């Protein structure tokens, strides 16, 4: 299961185990069970503090990890490789007494949660969003004896997936009931369980002293702005729903200069680490709601708290554009998806559609073609906007069909899941129906600027208009990244505009 290089790396990590742990394997006669048994055996052989035993569990194959002599509370139903290998390594370390790097106050909040919480998370091994959720819930299970967590590979437990009608990952269940879907941070999960946490946090934020630069948004533009501002020695804060923004949902990045290849979560981890090297106050799990200008610039949050600053940099980024057709919202997460890498494996052997013929749409179609039965690409225009190399590849695959001048008009479902879609041929005005189980929407981005429409000058598309210094129409307020009218929405361009906005804000401060 593990090659020599991976074994060596794992062996190095396992040296951090301070207390004995036990691996409990539940298996049957399937090839996957044999793979999991081999993996567990290889891990146990790497460290004398790890023992292995066979058990009969509710699911097979499955692997439970826990301190020796205790009933394990962390379970992996499936083989935790791919994106989930890190989740397995962390579970081994934490069960063995190695401390987590999570915020100490948050860990204490987890220990103090009252009640019984039994979590199940359905994942796919190709999902880059899933490990964050799995690792968060695993840590909670390690810290609190009243919490258990089981990761379930949907590809191996298809019957459960169909019974629960899971069509998007990660999907989290708590005590048998649906709890949440999509990326969730540790703090988000804990605050959802601890109902009084939001009010306490809002009260604490209201008491904070004004910043000199407050950055709204934690993506590449926000991170760059924070670093450049902090290096000037001025009080800097970042407030965001999550650190990383849209990049957290990006898989392969091949055009980041000097780095031939990386992945979104890896780049975000590096950005966050770089920001933390400076005295920057990072506030997450908070959404901006209003912007006001008085003696200071005020940012009101959805939580009711208000942060004040002498200058503000808006770097709220953008989100996936929706089709805005009947049925889209009703079947979101039930066949309508926006991340082919995350949710594609759930449609193995089924017919799917991709909406959009740009780079993201054609890349999605190519990726899905290796998993699903067939892919129908619907492009609004009479030409594909994707790079020619991608188009040539897509056209060479026998299970990809491309339909141009197609306007999607409706998502069709049976009340529980997607069963097809309707589109209009823009050339003939004829209406057609395509039978599909999944619809992957890849039609561009929408700036996260709705909350600013009454106070800043925006383009018709809702992008913030800025000058060469990143300044907006409101004195003391700057903007950067995908939320602005700057052309070409690229990570490296967002970073550059973030540094420009920070330098512009600093120049504003020394002049006012």
UniProtKB/TrEMBL annotation:
Where do the annotations place FAD binding?
A: 212-227, 472-482
Annotated S-S bridges: 339-342
Q: Sorted alphabetically, which keywords does the UniProt record give?
A: Disulfide bond, FAD, Flavoprotein, NAD, Oxidoreductase, Redox-active center
| Residue ranges of domain Thioredoxin-like fold in the record | 123-193
* Keyword Repressor part of the UniProt annotation: no
Per its UniProt record, the required cofactor names are: FAD
What does the record's cofactor remark say about binding? Binds 1 FAD per subunit.
One GO BP on record is:
response to reactive oxygen species
Q: Which residues form the FAD/NAD(P)-binding domain?
A: 211-498
Q: Which Gene3D superfamilies match?
A: 3.40.30.80, FAD/NAD(P)-binding domain
UniProt GO molecular function: flavin adenine dinucleotide binding; NAD binding; NADH-dependent peroxiredoxin activity; oxidoreductase activity, acting on a sulfur group of donors, NAD(P) as acceptor
SUBUNIT field: Homodimer.
Family, per entry: Belongs to the class-II pyridine nucleotide-disulfide oxidoreductase family.
Q: This chain belongs to which protein, by name?
A: Alkyl hydroperoxide reductase subunit F
UniProt source species: Marinobacterium iners DSM 11526
């Amino acid at each position: 299961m593990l090659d020599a290089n991976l074994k060596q790396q794992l062996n190095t990590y396992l040296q951090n185990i301070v207390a004995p742990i036990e691996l409990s394997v539940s298996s049957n006669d399937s090839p996957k069970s044999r793979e999991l048994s081999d993996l567990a055996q290889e891990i146990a052989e790497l460290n004398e503090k790890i023992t292995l035993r066979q058990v009969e569990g509710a699911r097979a194959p499955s692997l439970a990890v826990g301190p020796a002599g205790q009933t394990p509370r962390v379970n992996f139903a499936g083989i935790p490789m791919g994106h989930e290998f890190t989740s397995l390594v962390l579970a081994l370390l934490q069960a063995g007494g190695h401390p987590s790097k999570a915020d100490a106050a948050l860990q204490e909040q987890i220990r103090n949660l009252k009640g019984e919480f039994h979590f199940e998370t359905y994942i796919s091994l190709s999902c880059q969003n899933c490990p964050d959720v799995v690792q968060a819930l695993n840590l909670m299970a390690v810290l609190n004896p009243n919490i258990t967590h089981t990761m379930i590979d949907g590809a191996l437990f298809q019957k459960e997936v169909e019974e629960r009608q899971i069509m998007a990952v990660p999907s989290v269940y708590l005590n048998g009931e649906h709890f949440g879907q999509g990326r969730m941070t540790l703090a988000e999960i804990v605050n959802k369980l601890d109902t009084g946490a939001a009010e306490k946090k809002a009260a604490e934020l209201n008491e904070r002293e004004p910043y000199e630069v407050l950055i709204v948004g934690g993506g590449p533009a926000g991170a760059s702005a924070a670093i450049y501002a902090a290096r000037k020695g001025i009080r800097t804060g970042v407030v965001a729903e999550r650190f990383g923004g849209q990049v957290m949902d990006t898989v392969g990045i091949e055009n980041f200069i000097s780095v031939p290849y990386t992945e979104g979560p890896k780049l975000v981890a590096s950005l966050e680490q770089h920001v933390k090297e400076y005295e920057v106050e990072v506030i997450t799990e908070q959404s901006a709601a209003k912007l006001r200008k008085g003696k200071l610039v005020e940012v009101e949050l959805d939580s009711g708290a208000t942060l004040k600053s002498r200058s503000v940099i808006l770097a709220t980024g953008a989100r996936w554009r929706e089709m805005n057709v009947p049925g889209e919202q009703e079947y979101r997460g039930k066949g309508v998806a926006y991340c082919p890498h995350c949710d594609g494996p759930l449609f193995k052997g089924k017919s799917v559609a991709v909406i959009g013929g740009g780079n993201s749409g054609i890349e999605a179609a190519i990726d899905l073609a290796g998993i699903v039965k067939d892919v129908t690409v619907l492009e609004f225009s009479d030409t594909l906007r994707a790079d020619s190399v991608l188009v040539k590849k897509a056209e060479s695959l026998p299970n990809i069909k491309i339909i141009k001048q197609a306007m999607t008009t409706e998502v069709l479902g049976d009340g529980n899941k997607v069963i097809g879609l309707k589109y209009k041929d823009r050339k003939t005005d004829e209406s057609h129906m395509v039978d599909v189980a999944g619809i992957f929407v890849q039609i561009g981005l929408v700036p996260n600027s709705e909350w600013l429409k009454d106070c800043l000058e925006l383009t018709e598309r809702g992008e913030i208009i800025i000058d060469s210094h990143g300044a907006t129409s409101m004195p003391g307020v700057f903007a950067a990244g995908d939320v602005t009218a700057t052309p070409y929405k690229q990570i490296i361009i967002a970073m550059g505009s973030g540094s420009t906005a920070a330098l512009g804000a600093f120049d504003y401060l020394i002049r006012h």
